[in-house]
Design brief:
By secondary structure, the protein is mainly alpha-helical. The protein starts with a helix and ends with a helix. The structure holds fe (ii) ion.
Amino acid sequence: MIVLVFILVLLTFSNVYAEKFSQPVDSIPMLQLVSLPYDYDDLQPVISERTMQLHHGKHLQGYVDRLARYIINTPYNNMPLSRIVIMSDSSVYDQEIFDNAGQVLNHNLYFLQFSPHGGGEPQGALAKAIVNRWGSFEEFKHAFTQNGSQLFGSGWVWLACDHEGRLYIVQEPNGGNPVTHGLTPLLGIDVWEHAYYLDYQNRRTDHIDAVWNIIDWPVIEARYEATGVSDNCCQTAVEKMWEE
Ligand SMILES: [Fe+2]
């Protein structure tokens, strides 16, 4: 009985937690440094306290401050963050706005997807969609890590979904985000050196391998489910042929 109560409390807490930190990215105040659901030293040894101090406290703060400066008195000032990224991406005159808005969007998603109690595998519709797309969770992890390792220079690797729930691994250079391709970002790994160099030096793949241990899958699942899509569309072509 005590065990059952404990499990129920744990499930309730994890749902509330996932809901709180998987909020739509446009509902997070974009001109404030995003609050973290953990302390700077909680993600060790995967990400050190020093890296967190610099990455969240300095780099992200810099992007937030520059975005505020660049959009003041422009039509971007009252737009949701993802809209700013999409609109500025199509303007050759707004590169600085695109770079900084993209990095605020990316880092807000990034920092809210971690937990010191993370790791393991996703559940539910997301898990099913991953297996439908890549065959297994391990194959997905392998493909994602490979994309992150092979991305030339600075950038991001994303798990993203389209409006029908189909999943994609997307490489983005610099501050790019899959929203510019009409996709919803679910999980993003920062492969700029500032994200890992203090802890892993040039061993980017070791860093990505370690990051799997702090992924807060309930947050990623909630982002997927918030798109309102189901995994039904992710049936393979072979399955569809058998149905016809
Ligand atoms: Fe970063």
